[in-house]
Amino acid sequence: MSQKNTQTVCIVGLGYVGLPLAIRCSEKGYKTFGFDNNQKKIKSIQANKSPIKEAYIEKNLSRYPISATTNEKVIATSNIIIICVPTPVDKNFYPDLSPVISATKLVAKNVQKGSLVILESTVNPGVSEEIIAPIFQKAGFEIGKDVFIAHCPERINPGDSKWNVTNIPRVVGAFTAAGLEKAVAFYKSIIDGNIRPMKSIREAEAVKIVENSFRDINIAFVNELAKSFDKLEIDVKDVILGAATKPFAFMPHFPSCGVGGHCIPVDPYYLIEKAKRSGFNHKFLRTAREINNSMPIYTVELLKNALNKIGKSLKGTSVGILGVAYKANVDDVRESPAVSIIEEIKKSEAQLNIFDPYIPSQSTVKTLEELLTKSEVLILATDHNEFKNIDPKDFQKHDIKIIIDGKNCLNKEVLEKLDIIYKGIGR
After folding, report:
1. Nearest to 259 by CA among 206, 297, 227, 296
2. Residue range(s) occupied by CATH 3.40.50.720 in the chain
3. Does domain 287-424 have CATH number 3.40.50.720?
4. pTM for this one?
5. CB 323 within 8 A of CB 383
6. Tens digit of pLDDT for each residue in 52-81?
7. Active-site hit among 25, 84, 257, 263
8. Active site includes 257?
9. Assigned CATH topology for domain 8-201
């Protein structure tokens, strides 16, 4: 059993980041409050039912319950307050910090003196100094004396069976040495992984942006290779697997129909815009974002080209979309390329059939069987296990003529032997 902690923790924002963190704090013996303004979500948590399909939450919510509420007064009863609200971008890809600002004002209005306030939301370098600190100062708090402020950028990978909130290493930055010491001690008490103190809070903010920009750039590289190799009739997946045999200086990334989720397609814009205001133009990051944003349309173009080969147009064709979630085996649609693919297909007046076993609310059919029965062609947009494990002969049985594999996860050779036109991303 976990040792009982005398401190009380309040998590502000009970989403994919905040809810597992709250459960982990409870598991480690902290009295834990969870605050969220979504009444439906709160009622679900109070009934020990996870509002999110995520293994750690579903397994542990009833074992380590938290006090979930919409009453902001619980902030005043807590020693440690952690802000875990979204940091999205708008339709023009401009960072939207309004959830962070609103949450910080709420905390500053209710927090007791001597508390540790930690921001986990992903922000660009400078937000803690330019936005967070002034809110507390305006509320009459002296940072480092009346309140301690730190930043520990969230690290979460929904659907990952190995890495979760319990063991992913973290980095922490703070305004003062005392605040840093308190924050590091807290994370060491709940996480079975290395906690690295950073020299400044600004550097801690930069870490998360760099992590996800790194991934975005590498994915953009292989997505561009996919387009190039498609012209050269080279299987990009085979080439990447070949390059991965080099035991150093190469890290394999794979192309797909697009980049989704709350981090990779969003975080680079925070650095792009912050640097722009400081007089620097991130050409490399902008180009990577443009390439990755182009992939849903490219995927639809692959379908149009394949239809042309059999003398059909997209207009009037019955198209089945396998998956809406941004990644395999989760129910999260944030920035999902499937959404963009669906929007693009709608422009062509095709007949759309959509199925995602994790998101019935956005499915137009109730079962995979129904989708296969109603569809002439398919786009696999999410590599759920249910789709990867489809028997190829089922496609043939339902007279599926074309499959566009947006995740390169199906067996190309077997499908082609069944006289199905197969096209992957760069394959």
Report:
1. 296
2. 8-201, 287-424
3. yes
4. 0.91
5. yes
6. 888 899 999 999 999 999 999 999 999 999
7. 263
8. no
9. Rossmann fold (3.40.50)
